[in-house]
Amino acid sequence: MHCFVIVLFCLFINRSFATPVREFEKTRNDVDRVRNIRENIVHDVSMFIQKKSTHVRGEMTTKCSACIFLVNYEKMRLEEDPSSMEELGEMVEKGCEYFRIETPRICKGAYSIFGPEATAVLTQVDLSAESICGICLPYFCPDIPDSRNSGNRSDWLVSLPPLLRKQTWKSKIMEIPTKTLKVLHLSDVHMDLQYEVGSNAVCNEPLCCRSQGGDKVPTIIDPIRGEAPMAKKINETNNAWKWGDYRTCDLPWWTVNDVLQKLSKTNQEKPFDYILWTGDVPAHDVWSQNRMNQLYMLHNITALLVQYFPNTPVFPAVGNHDSYPSNNFPPASVNTGAAYSAQWFYNALWRAWSVWLPSSTKETIELGGFYTALVKPGFRIVSLNTNFCYTENWWVWLDPVDPSGMLQWFVKVLTSAEMSGEKVQVIGHVPPGKQPDCIESWSFNYFRILERFQHVITAQFFGHTHNDEIELIYNEDGTPMSVAYIAPSLTSYIYMKPAYRVYDVDGYHANTTWSVTNHRTYTLGLYKAHQTNEPDWSLEYDACEAYNQSHLSADNWGDMIGQWEKFLTNEHATQVPQSLAAYVKHYVRHPTFTPLEGLGKQLHCHDIDCYKVIVCDIIMNKQSSACLVNNVKDKTKKFKKYSKVL
């Protein structure tokens, strides 16, 4: 939704090429600026497409070509007359309504929130039209190099210290009988305070299951003190279920309260050693949010976790939906002006998180929402604000080189940990290397850091995608180096079972590795909960059992994925490996899953391509023959045709 404010012309093209010119004339006549170009725009677009239909780096789509032409045209207009931005804004809003990109209230709300921010960025950004379209329309412009990377991953590099001579690490902790830690991972809660039982679950907006006019919030129900509404008798198939809905809906607050309450009871029987919370608390109603609502959601979820886990350490990471506007994380070096400074938000993060974190984290949290904290002697957590690599965080366009100096700070922390004999786990929201979400140059530097400190970093945990998946990072010689666990979302948005995860982490003994040895994922069947009015959070799968492994490690994952690659490159293979079928099932987490049906609803692909897109999304920094298209590494963009809603 965010990028349409900057390149809505591209979205116009999506619809207008199928719209008669005489109909398009109605919208153009709404704005004087557009009327002035009415005689030549269609001709110029056509000529531009003919000239640019092929690109030196690959074939470009019609939509991509039209986008580049229109962005270039607008950049020229803005250089000649900066005041034309106001007219452009009027056209954006009217065009959004005319082409029914969204409903009128969402068009108006989205532009009122994101339009001024887009204006502020566009008037300062030094990006070509090709780069803007490549960033905002990656599925239509997959072959355009991002000028923030300039086609060269080494445009900027963090400084790394030389590798120290390997030393024997002596544990700083006393050995105790329990050698395995139990760690709870919650991610992408997306709690909707306006969820209404019986409302329309199949609406014509990006978020459904809400009361009429749900963007108006005169009163906020308090999930801590409030009571869940009585279940309504629902016969209509489109009506929202009580405990949540698989369709385009986020999770009601009483379902979030229910899972935390039940986890609290589990915690009393077998306590969690610590909790990872990797961001995204608010619902997906980005067009109607404000600072007050975002602050309320931050402090509310904090209060719930404190209430249900009063004695358990919690280590949070900030999500792209947690700020206001959504994705608003300017680097410290960028002058945003008072309107878009994120300082108020970083200050709020410290106030909320300080209930769990030491005072030593205050400086970096208030600088950019990142920190490090000791969990146990010899073991620490590093929480990164990976929204600094997020392509929809427009402010990083202005200064993409190590925003807020976070990666260089990360190197400093790891160097200190190395010298002190500490092990480190890394948490964040947006997974590094995930394309097209994370800037390639940032990911490249992150992977360089991983390789240098692979003996220090024992695990990585992220969220954001809502899928249940992993990333496998490799050494330069192609051997597996590190695993990043991407947790399934607590929200059901969209067509997914709500889920949380519990890890087994090796710890509490002299030779501990502090690495993940197994994990179990628990899900909620929403329709059954609606029918019985009894939400049952049950075990979906045990990873070691599902993948027939004695324990989880980078090497074991590498061996398994190697088998999957052989299957994908064998033209005569007919039997899908059992472990791959299991991984795909868990990845999709669809309530009515079958290998093709469930994937079809998620990825709109068929047969082998469905497996290929998922496997190739695991392999981060290694050339895989299973992921080659015309001898060029396919980053799987072309297969992902589902709507980008994250």
Top keywords for this entry?
six-stranded mixed β-sheet, Purple Acid Phosphatase, chain A, domain 2, 646 residues, 18 strands, alpha/beta
SSE layout:
Elements: H1 3-6, H2 8-16, H3 21-28, H4 32-35, H5 41-52, E1 54-55, E2 58-59, H6 62-80, H7 84-98, H8 104-122, H9 129-136, E3 180-186, E4 191-192, E5 251-252, H10 253-269, E6 274-277, H11 291-308, E7 314-316, H12 343-353, H13 362-368, E8 371-376, E9 379-383, H14 406-420, E10 423-427, H15 440-452, E11 457-462, E12 469-474, E13 480-486, E14 499-506, E15 516-524, H16 526-532, E16 537-542, H17 543-546, H18 554-569, H19 578-588, H20 597-603, H21 608-618, E17 628-629, E18 632-633
Helix pairs in contact: 2-6, 5-6, 6-9, 7-8, 11-12, 12-13, 18-21
Kindly describe this structure.
A hairpin with a 2-residue loop joins β1 (54-55) and β2. Residues 8-59, 146-154, 167-177, 213-235, 593-605 and 630-646 have low confidence and may be disordered. α7 (84-98) packs antiparallel against α8, α12 packs antiparallel against α13 (362-368) and α18 (554-569) packs antiparallel against α21. The protein has 646 residues and is an alpha/beta fold. Helices cover 36% and strands 13% of the residues.
